Amino acid sequence: MKVKGICLGCKVNTYELEFIINKFKEKNYEIVQDNESADIYVINTCSVTNMSDVKSRKVINRVIRENPQACIVVMGCMIEANRDYQNDGISIIIGNKDKNKVVFLVEEYLKNHQKIKKLYQDFDSEFEDMFIENMPGRTRAFVKIQDGCENFCSYCIIPYTRGKCRSKDKAKVIDEVTSLINNGYKEIVLTGIHTGHYGEDGETSFPDLLKELVELKGLDRLRISSIEITELNDDFLDVLKNNDVIVSHLHIPLQAGSDKILSLMNRKYDKNYYAKKIEKIRIIRPDISITTDIIVGFPDESEEDFLETMSFARQIGFSKIHVFPYSRRSGTKADLMPNQIDESIKKERVKRLMALSDELEKKYLEKFIGQKMEVLIEKSLDNYSVGHTGNYLKVEVNKPLERNSIVKVIITKKIDNYLEGEVLNGN
Fold first, then answer.
1. pTM for the full model?
2. Can you state the percent helix, strand and coil of the chain, rounding each to 5?
């Protein structure tokens, strides 16, 4: 039988769906891609905003409409946020528990043809183990080390859909990363809902995990998908200082550059705290790429608040800003706040902040013209190759090279949002 996976949302969802697809492969199901139809669909949903819910429902409805006879599995955050959700075309509904049992549930359904719905009150009681040895089509592999969030930012539903923080056993993380290295992956990306909280529910910590991972033979690059500024403690900075295996790129969400808005968001820091941490990081890694997320148009954000955010973003000197207009999310405190911002104002502020992001990205890219850098090749064509540096700069190289190889290049110029480089002798 043919199986197709559809992923909406974050890297954690990507990892979970990859695990499920691999389990189907192990049982000799045929995995299909793109426009090919399937007998079984597995949809991992997202619920980070109301629009994410809408998109998830649209995808579900389209799959049902186009494949009315298929076994359709719907799971994830949209289900946890909407536990009364019903759709007659769905065969199996689960939330964020039992994702590692999807193949078993599908085979139960195919045998009995009775719809299955499994939702739990204690779905976040323990970390649900998954293990991946291969991620076909990717040159960097994800490893999910953590789940859940207890920050309760006023705009966010995720603590309610993912539950409390819980961590994967450290020995299992090391085994999984080792297996991926042995299967040829040179770069590993650690991911979670709140990655930097790894270990806080046990007897270890995120820096302790990093210290062991960087010693693994054959691991060229270790990347962190995202980390909060409050998680960059002295132990973490010490690991960063002493281990070049950890790449020179950190994605550190800011969300707002106004202390008033940060307080309304229930973030756990102010501008001064954020700036001082960034200063410490840049003492350790002067050329590090620091990217971020910023929400514009949060309730009660005045023009002055927005200009303060623009000024602070320029002060920090991000290499790229991921800009999001505030999206009301039912079930959150921010949805009930007064002084909601008009959509036209949000749109205009998004445009201005994205223009600043382009300016900062250009400035950062130009710093590396004339420098020697290492590029992980991700795509090789007839007369050129494309890959990324450790600090996540996209580089186009002037000849075909072996995919998944790391080559040394000299950067010759910047074109739009990427760099061009020439391969140095010896590659």
1. 0.94
2. 35, 25, 40
Q: How far, in whole angstroms, is CA 363 from its chain's centroid?
A: 25
Apex 17 CA angle, 69 and 115, nearest 5: 35
Cα(95)–Cα(79) distance, integer angstroms: 5
Which domains occur in the chain, in start order? 2-118 (3.40.50.12160), 124-247 (3.30.750.210), 251-367 (3.30.750.200), 372-423 (2.40.50.140)
Residue 217 to residue 46: CA distance in whole angstroms: 36
pLDDT tens-place values along the chain, 427 residues long: 999 999 999 999 999 999 999 999 999 999 998 889 999 999 999 998 888 999 999 999 999 999 999 999 999 999 999 999 999 999 999 999 999 999 999 999 999 999 999 999 988 889 999 999 999 889 999 999 999 999 999 999 999 999 999 999 999 999 999 999 999 999 999 999 999 999 999 999 999 999 999 999 999 999 999 999 999 999 999 999 999 999 999 999 999 999 999 999 999 999 999 999 999 999 999 999 999 999 999 999 999 999 999 999 999 999 999 999 999 888 999 999 999 999 999 999 999 999 999 999 999 999 999 999 999 999 998 889 999 999 999 999 989 999 999 999 999 999 999 999 999 976 5
Residue identified by tokens 């990859």 is 18
